[in-house]
Specification:
Number of domains: 1
Radius of gyration: 20 Å
Order of helices and strands: HHHHHHEEHHHHHHHHEE
Shape: globular
Number of strands: 4
Strand order of the largest sheet: 1-2
Structural class: mainly alpha
Helix content: 55-70%
Oligomer: single chain
Number of helices: 14
InterPro entries: DHMBA_Reg_Transcription_Factor
Strand content: under 5%
Largest sheet: 2 strands, antiparallel
Length: 342
Amino acid sequence: MVYRGKPSPACEPCRSRRLKIATCQGPPLIGRWLNHIEGGIKLIEIRGAEQLCRPAGLELFTQLRLQIALGNVYKKVSTPSWLVDLSQLAVAYRGDTGDQVLDYFFRILVRLGNVIAMIKDNRFNDPALMLEQAIRLDAELVSWAMSVDRSWHYTVVKVHKADTEDDTYRYVYGDHYHIYPNSIVSMAWNNYRFTRIIIHGIIEYIYDVSAHSDEKVAAYKTTAMQSADLTRQLAEDICAGVPYHLGITGSADPMTLGIPFAGGVLRLMWPLFIASDCSGSSNRMRAWIATCLEKIGHGVGINMALTMAQILRDNMHLNWRNEGEPNIVKRPRRPYLVRNEA
């Protein structure tokens, strides 16, 4: 059965509550999420190094740590040093599991958060230097992607799509999807993609606000102009991983979005939401991502996914690129960052 994203009358009260969140008439999604993260920060700080000794504790630490780092990017604050120290200890407890790559992406997010915090705090005296830092982070990620072992490679599966077919409800966005060796590999690649999307948002911002007054920044015009195309490709790659995360790559009805596979969806929501908000995303992509998020929300019972979907349906977006707290606003023609001039 193909899900059309149309709730029954009985669902209307829930839909109304989600709509209030999306239109800022109630507690905004991002505020509730950041409050959740604050609880996670206290939890792993209290547990300290002991939590790293047990597989379950290490897994919880890894998941919460990523949420904290991403939240700090959105809040434009630096990551606390104690969390960085705990992350260094975590490497020793992982063994030869392949999870060490997640520690690498965490360190990249920490460094990216530090760059963004400089923008918020008006430490913007040398925009060219900050632009170079962002480009250097991006280059490190590209180097990682080009040098990974074959065991970290994924398979691209081509599919046929009729010109007249509406792919909004198909599980494939476009003409291909990805199959990964395991969930760690798929999560690592999505970390790589959404981190680069955020980095290129910063590159675009620095260029937009400084190119007219800084010749060094203006010299990066080609890089800035290529960011939209690059983020579009990264977002499409995130979409291409959806079938694997939903566990339907080998289903009997592989061409439609089926009931989500719970194991992978928690790691899929934020990459999808970030992909929908990049400068390279299109209306078609956002509609497809909204359908995926609705399937996740209804299939697994995750209200945040439903709220994310409603935000996209209402042409809203997560506005973290300003001097205040991140909030949900009407989607502008082009995303931008606003520096605090006070």
